[in-house]
Amino acid sequence: TPEILAFIFCFQLPEALLQERDKRAKWHGIPVLLQELYESSHLNSDFTRTHTVLKELSSLLSMEAMSFVTEDRKTAQESTFPNTYTFDLFGGVDVSVNIIPKLNDDLVKDCLSVLYNCCICTEGVTKILASRDDFVLFLFTLMTNKKTFLQTATLIEDILGVKKEMIQLEWIPNLSGLVQSFDQQQLANFCRILSVTISEPDVGNDDKHTLLAKNAQQKRNTSPSRAEVNQVTLLNIPGFIERLCKLATRKVSEATGTSNFLQELEEWYTWLDNTLVLDALMQIATDEAEHSSTESSDESTLATIPLRHRLPQSMKIVHEIMYKVEVLYVLCVLLMGRQRNQVHKMLAEFRLIPGLNNLFDKLIWRKYTTSNHVVHGQNENCDCSPEISFKIQFLRLLQSFSDHHENKYLLLNAQELNELSAISAVGVTSLVCDGKKGLLTRLLTSMKREPPDSSFRFWQARAVESFLRGATSYADQMFLLKRGLLEHILFCIIDSGCKSRDVLQSYFDLLGELMKFNIDAFKRFNKYVNTEEKFQVFLTQINSSLVDSNMLVRCIVLSLDRFESQTEDVKVVEVLSECCLLSYMARVENRLSFLFRLVNIINVQTLTQENVSCLNTSLVILMLARRRGKLPFYLNALREKEYAEKYPGCLLNNFHNLLRFWQHHYLNKDKDSTCLENSSCIPFSFWKETVSVLLGEDRTSPCAIIGYIDEPYMELDRDLLED
């Protein structure tokens, strides 16, 4: 390869000849320096010259690395960074990797900086280092030394980010002792590395996100993934979760100095690539403080002012915020893993939620930050400012913490828990929030203050919705209804002018959970939507994207069915007769219209975790029809719709395939089936039975789809699921 030839060329040519060639090629003396580095780094050598050479190389490469992080990385070419390219071409990476175990702490630090700068600017170097497992594991041993911790952590993070096969944490020598040796600052930065090792890899291809592809992958991979194994390894480290909870909830003093550095801070962050760079700045500030007594500064020259004077209090706050982003991410991933109950128990015991509640006003939501960025998924990289990232990660954590778990009541304080107990029996615990407001109430307050299109609204709504998810709780709904949540949601959907599909989807889902089976909620709805104009705006928002609003449609259909069976209740009868929303859904032509569109906007190949709810909502409509003996009427209506639209067989063939996939998907997944049962209050046995009836092979059956497809249009793809 060119690299090997260059390596031989560098170490076999006489130095004089190499210097002559260097002048013509403008190599800036790098091959000669590498030759000296190689020759001066043997075990019995005097490392004085090694130190000098590494300093020179570091200087040549660091300028290009700084240029790289301040420019557009996507347009960067190798020719833009000739020094780094030359260093790599002449075997500089191999020399550095081979000599680093022989060096003392100061030399190791310089050598790590050289490697990191090379990784930044030269494509492929990071991947080469990642392929050397022995080198990666050796890097972890360097983290025991405070002097080399930052440089080592930075390099490890970059390497693990491109490594084809995820490293197993149990391979790291004495991992438990290593983690326990970290101070809190080091542990927070180590979380940045851990996040790569405990998160499932992003497949990076939308086709692989389909449920069909995920099911096939699960068949191939029956054993726990490396990410899952790593999660267990972390949980087995004594005191690990407790220390993370302390990090996440420790307080920071409010900024007392000048605040006009905030804009500058945001600009700095565009090139301050990660928390570790901020650590370096803080370390410099500390060092400056130690030597300030022997130095003077010229106030007129910014360059001579000690860094501690140029680091405003706001930067210290951002520094702490960035720590917490990493810690909350790790806790969030662990909460969503297979050991969820174990993690929940520990987070409750170590009072994570009360601690976050105490930080809410002073740190988490200390100011209202504009956020119009794209909503990111759990494992996606985010280029947001530190405060935006912190808020989103905090809301993700609340969502994971509350979802289908009794510990959600820890988001209340004692008074709020007593209020809830007055509606329904809820056990009181000493682990709830302190202060005048619980975390859930603070979240609702901040939610109402956000601008209409703020993407924080998406995460806020998801966090509140998770509090309601699971078996429907009238007490939980009333707690939120009394705090004006329904009116706030309707304002956002109807009157605020919100155009964000993500935000609207989260509000539709939240509204569905808030109103489901709750007659008081429908009465409040009718009081707010008190004109035909408002109601039409509401319907337009629902109909504009059924993928986004189908959960709300499901809630209305289910609630209507229950209310119609409670005609002995005067209050229910009154609301049924007056509520425009219930009256609208009571008309069979409207339910059929929703059914047609729900079946038509999905197929087996495009089913994802996001849109599979459309299939389940269509099933809910048909299950309720079956209960009332109306299933044949609905199936015949689907057939008539096909002929009216001049595509006979298309709709019913598609629905038949979808239901076959439904059987394949849900009959093997206990969690999903439990969620379906809890959210609909329809026994899962009735779900399975209805699907079996619809997929019956007897063409004479009035409840089998096959009986409504004429023979010439039978296009059932029986090999689809096997493929």
From TrEMBL:
GO molecular function: phosphatase binding
Matches recorded under Pfam families: DUF3689
GO BP: ubiquitin-dependent protein catabolic process
InterPro entries: TRPC4AP
Cellular component per GO, a single term: Cul4A-RING E3 ubiquitin ligase complex
Name of protein: Transient receptor potential cation channel, subfamily C, member 4 associated protein a
Species of the source: Cyprinus carpio (Common carp)
